[in-house]
Design brief:
The chain is α/β, with parallel strands linked by helices. 24% of the residues lie in helices and 27% in strands. The structure holds NADP nicotinamide-adenine-dinucleotide phosphate (NAP).
């Protein structure tokens, strides 16, 4: 048996309940993990409210990424009991134990704690996929939310590939953007962001803008693009972006894409390597992992998800 946090029906966090469920027998190729920390992601709020483009039948166990210790292995698994591992994109992770395919977990480097490793997988998978979307080597790109979980990882990956990154954050968080490897950081609270980006690019604009914010930033994002540049939207942090008006793309003959991670990987077998790259960067440069906004025991999972809805600065963790 394991203890889990479940969304019982569509709606607010009052619909989250903690209960018990059967774990099932460990199959060949699987590992049993004692979960130390679960990272919460904004998409879980959308899924639980039932108003996301992807629908999940209720009730369902929450959680999609985490870190813990292998406590038993199925037939044919070479990982040893006691190995510290983390994972992303494994649904129903929000519990004290998890049965996972051994091929989907990645060993945590010694230098990283469980809390640190639990913040990496989804950010690393998303950032690695996003970095495939538009050819950018030697060019410039803007990253919104650059001090956020995905943002920091994306800045680091792009910078490593020779992209001149202009990262946008607020207040003192701009220092995190520079720590992650951005060429310039713009404080979105200190004036017109578009003007700041244009001045950093000699008025030319950038080849790509990565925008997870949506409604609040859509117009500014289009305005920062150089001719034939691409707006890559991958989230709705402030609400859905408006309908596209094709005439808005005419000035620069611009491109827009709505990122769907599934279309940018060959399959889930790619995830562990993507997570491994993220962990290696995080072990090398502490600036690549976001802050912790809150840490809750499993019994208080509903409070953790309520905190996630306030868009806190940093990751919310559930620590069973
Ligand atoms: N499509 C995918 O596969 C995928 C995967 C993972 C995440 N996402 C999406 O990516 C987004 C970010 O996720 P995350 O985990 O990185 O969140 P996060 O760590 O909370 O980062 C988001 C950051 O955005 C900034 N922000 C908030 N409101 C803003 C606004 N109105 N204008 C400009 N910036 C604002 C904040 O930083 P500052 O205050 O410092 O600017 C905040 O820290 C979410 O929308 C999520 O759904 C998509």
């Amino acid at each position: 048996m394991r203890r889990v946090a479940r969304a019982m029906r569509a709606g607010g966090t009052e619909n989250i309940e903690v209960g018990t469920e059967e774990l099932g027998r460990l199959q060949a190729g699987q590992v049993l993990v004692q979960v130390a920390a679960v990272g919460l992601n904004p998409v879980e709020t959308l899924l639980r409210r039932g108003d996301y483009v992807v629908k999940v039948p209720f009730p369902f166990v929450l959680g999609g990424e985490g870190a813990g210790t292998v406590s038993a292995v199925g037939e044919g698994v070479s990982l040893e009991v006691g190995t510290r591992v983390c994972w992303g994109a494994i649904p129903a992770s929000c519990g004290d134990y998890l049965v996972a395919p051994a091929a989907m977990v990645t060993t945590i480097p010694e230098r990283l704690s469980f809390d640190e490793a639990a913040r990496v997988p989804v950010a690393a998978i998303t950032a690695a996929g996003l970095a495939r979307v538009w050819p950018l080597e030697g060019r410039r790109a803007v990253v919104w939310g650059a001090a956020g979980a995905v943002g920091q990882m994306l800045v680091a990956i792009l910078a490593r590939r020779g992209v001149g990154v202009i990262g946008i954050a607020s207040g003192t968080r701009v220092s995190r953007v520079l720590d992650a490897g951005a060429q310039f950081a713009v404080d979105r609270g200190a004036g017109d962001v578009r003007e700041a980006v244009m001045s950093h690019t000699g008025g030319k604009g950038v080849a790509a803008v990565y925008d997870p914010i949506g409604k609040d930033t859509y117009t500014a994002s289009l305005g920062m693009l150089a001719p034939r540049g691409c707006l890559i939207t991958y989230g709705e942090f402030s609400g859905a972006a408006p309908e596209i008006a094709l005439q808005d793309l005419f000035r620069g003959s611009l491109f827009i894409t709505k990122y769907n991670g599934v279309r940018w990987v060959e399959g889930m077998h790619e995830f562990p390597a993507m997570v491994g790259e993220g962990l290696a960067m995080a072990a090398e440069k502490p600036g690549v992992i976001g802050e912790v906004a809150g840490r809750f025991q499993l019994e208080r999972a509903a409070e953790a998800y309520a905190m996630l809805e306030t868009n806190p600065n940093g990751k919310v963790l559930v620590a069973p």
